């Protein structure tokens, strides 16, 4: 738990969720095919201290400073994914010039349409309530309705997550996605367009 693993089987995800965890293409594109209205809800974007389990992935010694972006991906008004992106503070202008201008647009729309961007291998984890990203994800959600036993809140909460490192020239960018329970309710509404697999 809270350890990043190369193989999704080691994270013990249910079969239906495993399809979301291993999908190599754009998560935004896949979510759009499962809802009538897709929105990106920007929670925060700005300077932050890098989390300890992310520092080495993006080439920082210790918990250096990063630019951080946190969003909820929302299908038909219901949050289904919490996503966090971190970039070393010194490489935005040279390597990720679009980052500060994203606003409420999807990051995936930029990552999957720039041929200079290389995508690394997916890593998987089950994050517990002790992990700061899970606590942030739950804090961004509305409180559960009385008697609702399906929403994970509190120290016993646990969510499946994946992360991926992107490289553009010499710049590194790390995207972490936590899959919220509501994603299990999504049903495909249209065919998912094919796209090049650049994993």
From TrEMBL:
Q: Does the keyword Lyase apply?
A: yes
Entry's Gene Ontology molecular function annotations: lyase activity
Residues where substrate binds: 69, 107, 177
User: Which Enzyme Commission numbers does its entry carry?
Assistant: 4.1.3.40
Pathway listed for it?
Cofactor biosynthesis; ubiquinone biosynthesis
Q: Where in the cell is it found?
A: Cytoplasm
Identify which top EC class this enzyme belongs to. Answer: lyase
Keyword Cytoplasm in annotation:
yes
Give the catalytic activity. Answer: chorismate = 4-hydroxybenzoate + pyruvate
Role description:
Removes the pyruvyl group from chorismate, with concomitant aromatization of the ring, to provide 4-hydroxybenzoate (4HB) for the ubiquinone pathway.
Question: PANTHER family, alphabetically?
Answer: CHORISMATE PYRUVATE-LYASE
Q: Which family does it belong to?
A: Belongs to the UbiC family.
- HAMAP family linked: UbiC
Protein's recorded name: Probable chorismate pyruvate-lyase
Please report the organism this UniProt entry assigns to the protein. Noviherbaspirillum suwonense
Q: Which gene encodes it?
A: ubiC
């Amino acid at each position: 738990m809270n350890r990043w693993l190369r193989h999704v089987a080691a994270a013990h995800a249910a079969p239906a969720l495993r399809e979301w965890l291993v999908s190599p293409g754009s998560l935004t594109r896949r979510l759009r095919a499962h809802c009538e209205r897709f929105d990106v809800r920007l929670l925060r974007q700005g300077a932050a201290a890098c989390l300890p389990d992310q520092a080495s992935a993006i080439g920082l010694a210790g918990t250096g400073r990063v630019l951080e972006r946190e969003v909820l991906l929302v299908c038909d008004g219901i949050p289904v994914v919490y996503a966090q992106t971190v970039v070393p503070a010194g490489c935005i202008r040279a390597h990720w010039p679009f980052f500060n201008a994203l606003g409420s647009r999807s990051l995936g729309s930029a990552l999957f349409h720039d041929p200079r961007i290389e995508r690394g291998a997916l890593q998987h984890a089950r994050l517990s309530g002790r992990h700061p990203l899970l606590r942030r994800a739950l804090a961004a959600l509305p409180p559960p309705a009385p008697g609702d036993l399906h929403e994970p809140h509190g120290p016993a909460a646990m969510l499946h997550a994946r992360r991926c490192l992107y490289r553009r020239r010499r710049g590194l960018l790390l995207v972490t996605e936590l899959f919220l329970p509501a994603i299990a309710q999504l049903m495909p509404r249209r065919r998912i367009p094919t796209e090049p697999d650049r994993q």
